[in-house]
Each structure stands twice: as structure tokens, then as C-alpha cells.
Write a structure and sequence with these properties.
Layout lengths: L1 H73 L1 E7 L4 E7 L14 E2 H5 L7 H13 L4 E9 L6 E13 L5 E10 L1 H48 L6 H33 L7 E4 H12 L7 E6 L6 E4 L1 H18 L3 E11 L2 E8 L29 H11 L3 E7 L3 E9 L1
Parallel strand pairs: 8-10
Antiparallel strand pairs: 1-2, 1-6, 2-3, 4-5, 5-6, 7-9, 10-11, 11-13, 12-13
Amino acid sequence: MCNFARMLQLLLAIDGQMSLSVVLFWVLGGLLILGALAMIFVQRRTTKELQYELSQLAKMNENNVEFEFVLKAMHLATWHIDPQTGSVTYDYDFREKGIDWAVLGEGSKLSDGEQLLLEEDVPQVSKALENICSGKAKEYHEEYRVKIPHTSKYYWEESSAIVADRDIDGKPLRIVGTSMRIDERKHMEKALVDARNKAEESDRLKSAFIANMSHEIRTPLNAIIGFTSLLPDVTGDEERRELIGLIQENNKKLLQIIDDVMNISKIEAGDVDPVISSFDLNMTLTEVIDRQKQRLKPGVELTTQYPQQQLTISTDMSRLTEMMNHLVTNAAKFTDQGSIVVGYDLPENKRIRIWVKDTGKGIPQELHEQIFERFFKVDEFVPGAGLGLPICRTMAQSLGGSVAVDSVPGEGSCFTIEIPC
């Protein structure tokens, strides 16, 4: 009986231990399963996050490619400035080349870029950069000229920038900007300004032309009409010849005005090409002087000063003759006493200088260029349309030459024609 009780107790003890082991086994198994499930969930979540990050990275790379493509298409450069250190770094540079940008390498200073600019543009650019770096300005925008190394040339560039990041006090921490070449735009702007100025000048000249022509044509025309109406009433031969002479003189003046207008219009329009021929310069100048002697006022002497007795040159004889006619006529108008001298210097480098000196009224220094403008007159009381000197300059330029004046008021003038010969 005792043995049986002991065996029963032993069996119960063994059964209790086995039940506890089974419970522990199932608990541990459940924990392992839960851990595995948790690990699977975390792994799937991590995988999704990784896939998302990879997709974002792919999009970023795609955006970077598109960004670079846009920069390249627009020939832009992007850069950033560290206001604390004053350093500038270029991120991308797709500008059309034409300058060595090595001076603006990684961590270059803003002052390093000043040596690339034209001196006239340095102050305004430096001031604008200083304002945005110090926080005085929110934006930066400047147009300036950049020197091309080893040449005297330059090109135009435009830069813009904004403050990208600030500290707690609002001071700039990072500035980003772009730069691009704007040569074509500047050329277009200049062309538009030139076209506008030309249109305004044409309008001014048209008004001046109408005002001057109405006066200059009316004066000889009134004389012609007036003297012609008197002819039937004149009975004396001497008085009739005098009236006819006055009519013929005013006919010549009227014809000269019309010829001047036609000549300057044809030459400026390029309708008449120079006719080059060889001729004796001395003989041509002498013929001009002989025709002009009748225009001289009493007490004025017209002489010549030739360095040699004969000189053969090759140029457009008709244009040279007309230029000399205008210069001698102009000298005769403004010389009341003294002399007018026509001469030339011996050719140098296949160019010749022909001059007309007078002892007339002279021309103030500030009007030396203005007298070559169409319809401009120094003295409004002296007859003339103001076309003689402009015609001379236009004709000289058409031959590859020039016309200049050296004059002092009260001492006289010297007009010089320089042309290839």
C-alpha cells in the first residue's frame, strides 16, 4: 500500500513536470512566431521605404538631368556665395566660352572676379554684391562687361541672385545666383536705339529740309518772277540787260540748290559709283579757281600754292571738282577782305591733301563738326542752303577720304580734303 502511494506520487510529479514543459514550449514557440511576424512586418516596411527612397532618388536624378539640360540650352551658369567667407563657387557653367574661368575656381573670393570685368563696371557690381551679402538688399541683378583674355574685346553678361538661407538674426547664410551672356540682346538693343535715333534724326532733317528749302528756293524764285514781270515795262537796253543778268543769276542759284539736293541724295543712297580716272591736278584746280573769281568780294585775292608745276593723280575728277567748288564758294562767302589760297601737299602713302585757306570770319571750335551737318548754317544772314560742306564730306567719304577744318574766329579757316590718289 505504501509502495503504491509512492508510485502514484512519483507519476503525478512526472506529469506535472511534463505539463509545465509543454506550456513553456508553446509559450516560447508563440513568442518566436510573434517575433518572426514582427520581423517580417518591419522588413516589408523597410523594403517599402527603401523602394520609395530609390524612386525619389531616380526622380531626383531625372530632375537633375532635366535641370542640366535647361541650363545648357539657355547657356546659364549657376553659383552660390558664402557671405561669411566671401567665397563664390560655380555649380554648373554652360556659358558660351570666351574667357578663362580658372580664376574663379572652388572657394574663390568675390574680389577675384573683379579682375575679369571692365574697370568702369567694377564699382556698381561690387556695390550690388556687397548689399546682398550684408543683407541690405534681398535681390541682386546687374549687367556688366567681361574682358576676353589677351584681347581688347569684351562681352556682355547678366547676373541675378537671391538670398537662399538666413540665420536667426536674418543675416544671409547662402546666396544662389545665375549668370548668362547677353551679347545678342545688347546688339539688338543697340540696333533698336540706333534705329530710333536714325528715325528721329530723319524726322528732324525732314523738318529742317522743308524749312530751309522753302526759304532758299523761294528767294531766287521770287527774284526770277519779280524781275521777269518787270521786263515788259522796261524800255532801255541797259536796264533790260541788267534785269536779264539778275534773272540768270537767280536761275543759277535755284539750279545749284536743286543740284545740291539731288547730289547728296544720290551719293547717300549709293546710286552713283565713283568714276576713277587720271588727270592733272594743277589744271583741274586752276579751272575751279577761274570759275570762282567772279564770286569774290572787292579787295579779296584768290591765289594758288602748288608744290610742283604738274601732278597726275587718279580719282573721281567730277567729285573732286565739285568738292573744291563748294569749298572755294564757301570761302568767298565769308571772306570780306584778305586772301583765299588753294593748294595741296605732295602725296604720301598714296593719299593727297588738298586745302583751301582764307582770312574770313572763322568758325568757333564747338561748331567744327556741326558745320558738316545738313542745313546747318553758322550765319543765317548769309545766302545758302547749308548743303555745301555736307556734300563735300559725303563725297570724300565715298572716295575713302575725309574732310576736316581748322579755324579760329577772326583769323580765318583752312578746309582740308584728304583722299586716296
